[in-house]
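Record type: monomer structure entry
Structure origin: computed from sequence
Chain ID: A
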Amino acid sequence: MSDVVFIVLTVAVFAVIGAVARGAGRL
């Protein structure tokens, strides 16, 4: 179960980074 949680958190982090990158690109 720990592996699944780790994967989910990793995907969430990449999603946040992608959103921030897009926001910075717009600015």
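Annotation 1: The mean pLDDT is 92.
Annotation 2: The chain has one helix and no strands.
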